[in-house]
Design goal:
Length: 407
């Protein structure tokens, strides 16, 4: 399928702009019209009559060089939103026309950039969304940033690059209805930015959605190319093809699900095969039932022997087995201490006993044996003692007396 009339108008306008900016073609006066869609527009230039100016004055570095502004002539529906000529002065009519104006300013770039454009771009994207929602509402004014666009070009900028940017703007303004041929042109441009185009076919299809919704506020002639290339590469790294986000729609899942799937796909691509005699950190997490932070602390302390293969860290099986056994013994010690507290021992007495055992050089398995003997002794005494019920009551004085007798 061929290109739409709006896309052909974008290509025609790109050629004309290059003639006006860099080949000193004279700017036509009065109202003009796009050849295919017949949409009327007017031209203004800065500086005025640059072709007649002195060579030293043709480039105004402080003001951004030459600029051509293309102003669309409002149609009948847009004109109804303006003020009536019978009830307003010519000045008021001009001011109202300015507020309803759709325009594209194409600047000859001279290395001027906004230092932190992120905030501006967030607001412009909000304006784009709101402008699309209000497009068919002729009684409400569209947001400023939806109606005003700026593009930067240089003599080295290709006609294809400028025509694609104009096509994106025409899409927002409903001058261009995308066809399969138009989408193919954008897709071919995306994959042509890489040395191995066949690797990025699916990512190029998915990036079209972001081009037509997120690309705003270019600040130099290469901004569009840079945005497209970075977006395609990001989608490829996230596993393009499994995300299911294309310009045709059917997004389906929410952003969190798509991002999680992209991370899993990327992890599968970059995962290093486990060498024999080693276990991964996350396998050790599952075996020892401890957090990864504890494992990394043990590795840094030298109690766990680990080695890095590729981008992943692996622990030796012998060291991992000792770590798992030690973690299991610590869990059993905590369980037996809890058992002692249910049998009437206070927390302070429990903590002091464990401290003395460790201070005397008892290992974890020996501590387990000591705690088990104490549990059996206390259980037997509680069954034989008539004050066992009092020992079970949550009263600190009674518990202290019982624990002092055992200790």
């Amino acid at each position: 399928m061929g290109h739409s009339p709006g896309f052909l108008d974008a290509e025609w306008l790109a050629r004309e702009v290059f003639g006006w900016l860099f080949e000193d073609h004279p700017l036509p006066e009065g109202s003009q019209s796009l050849p295919k869609t017949k949409r009327q527009f007017e031209l203004t230039a800065y500086p005025l009559n640059w072709a007649l100016a002195e060579p030293s004055q043709r480039h105004c570095e402080a003001k951004g060089g030459r600029t051509v502004t293309i102003r669309l002539v409002p149609n009948a529906a847009t004109a109804r939103n303006g003020m009536s000529s019978s009830t307003s002065s010519p000045g008021a009519q001009a001011a109202q026309a300015f507020l309803n104006e759709y325009s594209i300013s194409i600047h000859e770039w001279v290395s001027e950039r906004i230092p932190k454009p992120k905030t501006y771009r967030i607001e412009i994207r909000k304006s784009l969304k709101r402008g699309k929602d209000l497009f068919n509402d002729n009684d409400r004014r569209k947001p400023f940033f939806y109606r005003r666009w700026s593009i930067h070009v240089s003599p080295k900028t290709s006609l294809r690059l400028l025509s694609l940017q104009l096509a994106v703007i025409f899409t927002h303004w409903k001058i261009l209805d995308l066809t399969t041929g138009d989408l193919d042109e954008f897709r071919h441009f995306c994959i042509s930015l890489f040395r191995k185009p066949e690797m990025f076919e699916q990512a190029a299809k998915e990036v079209l959605f972001y081009i037509f919704s997120n690309w705003v506020m270019p600040q130099d002639p290469e901004d569009f190319t840079r945005y497209v290339k970075q977006s395609v590469w990001a989608l490829y790294n996230k596993g393009a093809g499994s995300i299911g986000n294309t310009i045709e729609g059917s997004r389906g899942r929410n952003n969190r699900e798509r991002n999680n799937e992209g991370r899993r796909s990327y992890a599968q691509k970059t995962r290093t095969r486990k060498p024999p005699g080693y276990v991964s950190v996350y396998e050790l997490v599952a075996l020892s039932q401890t957090g990864p932070q504890r494992i990394y602390e043990a590795i840094n302390a030298g109690t766990l022997k680990a080695q890095k293969f590729g981008k992943s860290l692996f622990v030796t099986t012998t060291s991992a087995a000792a770590f798992v056994l030690k973690a299991q013994q610590k869990r059993e010690i905590r369980e037996r201490r809890s058992k002692l507290e249910t049998l009437g021992m206070s927390k302070d007495a429990n903590r002091k006993r464990l401290f003395r055992l460790r201070e005397n050089g008892f290992k974890d398995d020996e501590i387990l044996q000591q705690l088990q003997r104490l549990i059996e002794k206390r259980s037997h005494r509680n069954k034989a003692s008539p004050s066992s019920k009092a020992a079970k009551e949550p009263m600190g004085v009674t518990k202290t007396v019982v624990s002092s007798q055992i200790l």
